[in-house]
Design brief:
about 725 residues, mainly beta, Immunoglobulin-like, 4-stranded mixed sheet, extended
Length: about 725
């Protein structure tokens, strides 16, 4: 309540309130100065309110005292429970931890005033998780309460922690949270094989590096604590087998290191040890952290292919060897106990030219053709060995046959030389250095000897000097070479090799006489250059030839176009080809029109047809007259008529080589209704009787009306 000393209680003073929450939260009775709260206050939302009050004269509305300021403090009550703002919690602790090992700390907050009473004083307790864990009441630290908790027995625990204010007294508010505690693994379990011994059967044909077996030592630990290594510590298969670890499954993988042979050894025994890689010294008393087992491997017999005594045979033979010469022998045997006989053959895919043969029983390899080292110096062939009792079992042996060289190739020029000599060359001038090659390959290398042939030894133009290093030099013997006198010289050179017996060849060196510049570089080597006109260059000659060729092509084109115009392949529509084209869009002139067709041919079939030449081509051979058609059946008449036309077209040399449409205006005879053509009526006074048309029905009514004679016609 606010009260002014000026207030006499007569109602002349009124009180007003301003500031935080005035009129909304706090109101004042303007007559008495009593201040009231209009709604429930929450200290946790706002703990203090600053207000200003003033006493005014009711009549003048002027202050009777200075404005005063006061603070309203909200007194706290316990209306907020503790809350775990970071919950729920997850934590981990190693298994086998001692009692009192800290796991995690939980914290609850209370929104009440910690300075007033016990509303914000919190204590912690565990509602679920005993007797394994405990919690510090004041700090909220969770600790282990039992020793030797084993992850392999139970690896996860769910705890419920309570926080209660008012120091845990009755009437206090509380909140809870959950804590999930996981026991982490430690290496407290040694590996153990489920069995003391294992046995596996494997075929002897199993390839090297194949997996024989997988074994695993059980370890209840996980992760790095379960990682193991395996090794063969004893047994008779130390060099034949090896064991490695599968990093994903921690299995020991036994594989083959050497080929198995049932005939040599039928079984192997291995002592295998499995040990943890990461041992915790705290738990050595639970050890040892390793285990042993025995693995017995039984080798099973299989039918194996023949085996050669050597994987690769190396043989040599001279290229001069005759057909049938023995080169060498291969040998193979059946490794099985049955020791089946073996037959040999050559894989012809490796000897396509069939240079070699092999004896099927003895394995002796001989030559089947003449050999040439220069074509193929080494032959690599595959020999097949097949069991007689089981041909499907085939062994393979490899033979490398080296061909020894003989001196069977004469030396020759190393290249095609283009030798020139200048017209102003001096005696003794070097114009060419030559060398030789030989396809043979002597063991001590080549040695060639050069000389001029006997007929060229005394020539007056050139000489040859052997350099004794498998090269020779060609020199001039005189000067004054002239192209007009002789433009080309041919110098035969004799080359001998050092083989035994030695071989020789004569090679001709072509030497051209050229016009050279001051540096001795050839400029022109053709003698014909002197004959050309002085002012006519090579480019001009080429241009003239091009013009002549162009004119010839134009003439040929003109001639071809003219010939095509003379022999048209398509008929002209305007031509009068009466027997080929019938125009149906023209009515014609009736009976009086006798220009378009030969009326006699239509009236009478039994007339002589004159030979007519084709109008679409110019005939060169006149044909014989056609035979006269007699009164014979229509099918024969038509057949003979068409046959004559066909024969005429076939033998006509001027006819174009393509089929053409042939239209024949040919009626025939023998119709039941006789001829209906009006072309036979030469005049209107025809004596032919058409009364029978009335008997043919409505379709012929029009004709009956036109040609009928009697007024009593059926349809008149």
């Amino acid at each position: 309540q606010l009260h002014s000393d000026v207030d006499k209680g007569d109602g002349s003073i009124k009180y007003i309130l301003s500031g935080e929450g005035a009129s909304s939260i706090f109101i004042i009775d303007e007559n008495t100065g009593d201040i009231h709260a209009t709604k429930r206050l929450d200290r946790e939302e706002q703990a203090y309110y600053t207000l200003r009050a003033q006493a005014l004269d009711r009549l003048t509305n002027k202050p009777v005292e200075p404005e005063s300021e006061f603070v309203i403090k909200i007194q706290d009550i316990n209306d907020n429970e503790p809350k775990f703002l970071d919950g729920p919690y997850t934590a981990g602790v190693p298994e086998m931890s001692p009692v009192g090992t800290s796991v995690v700390q939980v914290t609850a907050t209370d929104a009440d005033d910690p300075t007033y009473g016990n509303s914000a004083r919190v204590v912690y307790s565990i509602l679920q998780g005993q007797p394994y864990f405990s919690v510090e009441p004041k700090t909220g630290v969770i600790k282990t309460a039992l020793p030797n908790m084993d992850r392999e027995a139970k690896d996860q625990y769910l705890l419920v922690i309570q926080a209660k204010d008012m120091v845990g007294q009755n009437g206090g508010l509380s909140g809870t949270t959950s804590v999930t505690v996981t026991l982490t693994d430690v290496n407290d379990n040694p590996p153990r094989f489920p069995r003391r011994s294992y046995q596996y059967n494997v075929p002897e044909s199993l390839p090297v590096a194949s997996v024989v077996a997988r074994i695993k030592a059980a370890d209840a630990d996980v992760g790095p604590n379960a990682e193991m290594e395996y090794k063969i510590v004893d047994g008779d298969g130390l060099g034949v087998f090896k064991i490695s670890v599968d990093k994903d499954t921690q299995e020991g993988i036994i594989t083959i290191q050497k080929e198995l042979d049932f005939e040599a050894k039928t079984s192997y025994t291995l002592r295998i040890e499995a040990a943890n890689m990461h041992v915790d010294p705290r738990f050595l008393s639970l050890g040892p952290f390793s285990d042993m087992t025995t693995v017995k491997i039984i080798v099973e017999d299989v039918d194996e292919p023949p085996v050669f005594t050597s994987r690769l045979y190396s043989m040599v033979v001279s290229e001069a060897a005759k057909v049938g010469t023995i080169i060498g022998t291969v040998a193979a045997h059946d490794p099985d106990a049955s020791n089946s006989p073996v037959r040999y053959s050559i894989d012809r895919n490796t000897d396509l030219e069939r240079y070699f043969n092999i004896d099927a029983n003895s394995g002796v390899i001989t030559t089947a053709k003449s050999l040439d080292r220069e074509t193929n110096a080494v032959h690599n062939i595959t020999v097949l060995a097949m069991e007689s009792q089981n041909p499907a079992q085939i062994g393979r042996g490899y033979v490398a046959i080296t061909i020894l060289d003989i001196n069977d190739n004469a030396p020759e020029f190393a290249m095609e030389y283009e030798t020139t000599v200048c017209e102003n060359a001096q005696p003794g001038q070097v114009i060419q250095k030559i060398s030789a090659i030989d396809k043979d390959d002597p063991p001590n290398g080549h040695q060639f000897y050069f000389s001029l042939t006997a007929e060229a030894a005394n020539n007056h133009n050139f000489t040859l000097q052997d350099n004794k290093d498998n090269t020779a030099t060609v020199l001039t013997k005189r000067n004054g070479f002239r192209r007009q006198e002789q433009s080309v010289f041919y110098l035969p050179i004799f080359i001998v090799d050092s083989g035994s017996p030695s071989l020789s060849s004569t090679n001709t060196l072509t030497i051209r006489v050229c016009d050279c510049d001051a540096d001795g570089i050839a400029q022109t080597c053709n003698a014909e250059a002197y004959i050309l006109p002085a002012g006519l260059s090579t480019g001009a000659l080429i241009a003239i030839l091009a013009c002549v060729l162009t004119l010839l092509v134009l003439v040929l084109l003109i001639v071809t176009m003219r010939r095509r115009k003379k022999e048209p392949l398509i008929f002209d529509e305007e031509r009068d080809i009466r027997e080929n084209i019938v125009r149906y869009d023209d009515e014609g002139g009736g009976e009086e029109d006798t220009e378009a067709f030969d009326m006699a041919a239509l009236r009478n079939l039994n007339i002589m047809r004159d030979t007519k030449t084709r109008r679409d081509v110019t005939p060169e051979i006149q044909f014989l007259s056609r035979p006269t058609f007699k009164s014979i059946p229509d099918n024969v008449i038509f057949r003979e008529f068409i046959w004559e036309r066909l024969k005429e077209a076939d033998v006509d040399p001027c006819a174009p080589p393509y089929d053409s449409l042939q239209t024949y205006a040919f009626e025939g005879n023998g119709s039941v209704a006789e001829s209906l053509s009006s072309l036979d009526s030469i005049s209107s006074n025809s004596d032919q009787n058409y009364d029978y048309l009335s008997d043919w029905g409505p379709r012929f009514k029009r004709l009956a009306d036109m040609y009928g004679t009697g007024p009593d016609c059926l349809y008149s």
